[in-house]
């Protein structure tokens, strides 16, 4: 008999679905009730996600089996019905989604929940789509959850109105509709060749595809990959991302910071399942393109980081840099590098979301038109004034500015990948296996490793320059005349996210063990396949001695 614990796998989808549906039945004027329901749902989601993480991490990596749990809706066989699959990677993404959801929702209680209608149900449906995308075990339902996630994100992108927000939001909708069409075309081509959309079944059949059909299958996978990489923000199809992320509201930007990582998740999951070592002639398909595209995205993001004078666009450019870093690391195709990339994904998602939430309180401390004045000062300079001998030397820093300053400094260290925080440890974990020389002396460091090292160092330098310039301008060059009014519900989520990054730094050992176990299970998809697909039926008489 199935116990209640077995139904926890579907809970991350059902909880926000029910909460969002209930909110739609509540009058919009009863916003406090909706907020309370949303907080209860998101906290419950976090508890369930942490529980599933502990369950997924139950099997030690040396046991030779991935900790995979399968949930069959309607108890249909996995190759026929809808299947949800929980493993270490899915559980990690569920926890990240729940943490970001809680932080963004608490931040929105200050004022953004009142900026437009149906904020809370849209937010819950956004969480539902994200969780479903991470848990689904087949491509068609991945498409369905992608569309639920995107439909909710369209509403959140336009939430609060405003000309700039509407213009960027409409661009965002148009680009993602085009990507969704490519998604559907790619899925259709793959189904026409392989005869299944179940991910585990695809991993089984990919090696047996007829030679005359293999090119068409790989073309379908490439079209599907373009759809994922558009959502991930890879250059040159990620041009839309900084502008869109810089115009949406702060809580929407914080939760949308993980949307680009859904594309990374899909690439990582499907590429290693379909084109791993057991894929026959298709093994490693398009891996070099992931590496090249990732490095070019890092370069493009670094240029965008240096070029922008707006903090919101700076955060959007940092999303591009993080996506490029992850794509390049995945394209290397090494277990140890993938483990470091998962650590980097966790750290960067938390840091970027924290920075998006921090921007709004920081902007209140600046003079009106500070960005325009910063460009003017940078281009033309400004006249030096004679110092007043009677001016008081030194300024007492109020508590709120100290908190904002420390938070900004932590974001700068994390985004630039400087020690001692988790951004540096994550980059070190990615680069260490690439730069490790063969002890026998037969092999050295590859050219691609040096290229990736140079890209990461230069992107870190660009981020340091941009964040230092921004920090000087915010705190010294153009401060406002009055202290910013910041509520506890606005600063508490920022402190939470940055504290989690500090916790990742302190507990880097256990965290890296989890990431390495996750990477090992991803690079050995046979374990995933064995857990999801039923064993073949026994031949007649196999067990009766005949």
Can you tell me about this structure?
With 546 residues, this protein is mostly helical. The chain has helices spanning 11-25, 31-56, 88-108, 119-135, 139-158, 163-194, 199-205, 211-232, 241-247, 250-256, 259-274, 287-307, 311-332, 335-364, 370-380, 399-416, 422-435, 447-477, 488-506, 508-523, 525-532, and strands at residues 69-72, 83-86. A two-stranded antiparallel ribbon has the order 1-2. Helix 1 runs antiparallel to helix 4 and helix 2 (31-56) packs parallel to helix 4. The longest helix is centred in the first third of the chain and has 32 residues, at 163-194. The radius of gyration is 24 Å and the shape is globular. Residues 60-66, 372-396, 438-442 and 542-546 have low confidence and may be disordered.
The largest sheet, given as strand count, sense and whether it forms a barrel, is: 2 strands, antiparallel
Number of strands: 2
Q: Provide a count of the helices.
A: 21
Q: What is the CA-CA span between the terminal residues?
A: 33 Å
Order of helices and strands: HHEEHHHHHHHHHHHHHHHHHHH
């Amino acid at each position: 008999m199935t116990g209640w614990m077995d139904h926890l796998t579907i809970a991350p989808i059902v909880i926000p679905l029910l909460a969002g549906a209930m909110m739609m039945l509540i009058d919009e004027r009863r916003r406090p009730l909706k907020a309370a329901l949303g907080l209860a749902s998101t906290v419950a989601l976090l508890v369930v996600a942490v529980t599933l993480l502990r369950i997924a991490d139950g099997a030690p990596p040396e046991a030779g089996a991935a900790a995979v749990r399968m949930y069959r809706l309607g108890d249909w066989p996995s190759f026929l019905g809808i299947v949800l699959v929980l493993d270490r990677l899915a559980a990690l993404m569920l926890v990240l989604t729940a943490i970001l959801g809680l932080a963004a929702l608490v931040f929105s209680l200050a004022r953004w929940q009142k900026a437009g209608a149906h904020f809370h149900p849209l937010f819950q449906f956004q969480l539902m789509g994200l969780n479903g995308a991470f848990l689904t075990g087949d491509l068609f339902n991945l498409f369905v959850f992608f569309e639920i996630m995107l439909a909710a994100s369209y509403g959140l992108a336009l939430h609060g109105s405003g000309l700039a927000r509407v213009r960027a939001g409409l661009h965002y909708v148009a680009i993602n509709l085009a990507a969704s069409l490519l998604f559907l075309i790619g899925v259709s081509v793959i189904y026409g060749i392989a005869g299944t959309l179940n991910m585990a079944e695809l991993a089984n059949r990919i090696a047996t595809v007829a030679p005359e059909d293999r090119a068409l299958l790989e073309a379908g996978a490439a079209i599907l990959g373009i759809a994922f990489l558009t959502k991930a923000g890879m250059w040159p199809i990620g041009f839309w991302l900084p502008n869109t992320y810089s115009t949406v509201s702060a809580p929407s930007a914080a939760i949308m910071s993980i949307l680009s990582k859904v594309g990374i998740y899909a690439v990582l999951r499907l590429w290693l399942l379909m084109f791993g070592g057991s894929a026959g002639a298709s093994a490693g398909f398009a891996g070099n393109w992931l590496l090249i595209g990732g490095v070019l995205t890092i370069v493009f993001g670094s240029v965008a980081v240096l070029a922008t004078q707006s903090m919101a666009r700076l955060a959007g450019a940092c999303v591009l840099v993080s996506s490029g870093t992850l794509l390049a690391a995945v394209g290397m195709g090494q277990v140890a590098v993938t483990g470091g990339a998962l650590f980097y994904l966790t750290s960067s998602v938390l840091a970027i979301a924290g920075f998006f939430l921090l921007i709004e309180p920081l902007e209140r401390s600046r003079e009106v038109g500070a960005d325009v004045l910063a460009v003017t000062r940078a281009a033309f300079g400004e006249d030096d004034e004679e110092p007043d001998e009677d001016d008081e030397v030194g300024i007492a820093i109020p508590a709120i500015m100290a908190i904002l300053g420390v938070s900004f400094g932590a974001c700068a260290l994390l985004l630039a990948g400087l020690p001692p925080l988790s951004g540096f440890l994550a980059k070190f974990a990615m680069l260490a296996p690439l730069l490790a020389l063969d002890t026998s002396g037969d092999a050295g460091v590859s050219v691609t490793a040096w290229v990736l090292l140079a890209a990461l160092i230069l992107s870190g330098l660009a981020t340091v320059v941009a964040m230092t310039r921004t920090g000087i301008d915010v705190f010294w060059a153009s401060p406002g005349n009055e202290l910013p009014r910041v509520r506890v519900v606005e600063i508490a989520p920022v402190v939470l996210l940055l504290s989690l990054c500090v916790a990742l730094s302190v507990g880097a050992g256990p965290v890296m063990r989890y990431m390495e176990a996750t990477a090992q299970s991803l690079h050995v998809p046979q374990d995933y396949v064995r857990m999801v697909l039923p064993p073949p039926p026994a031949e007649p008489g196999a067990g009766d001695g005949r």
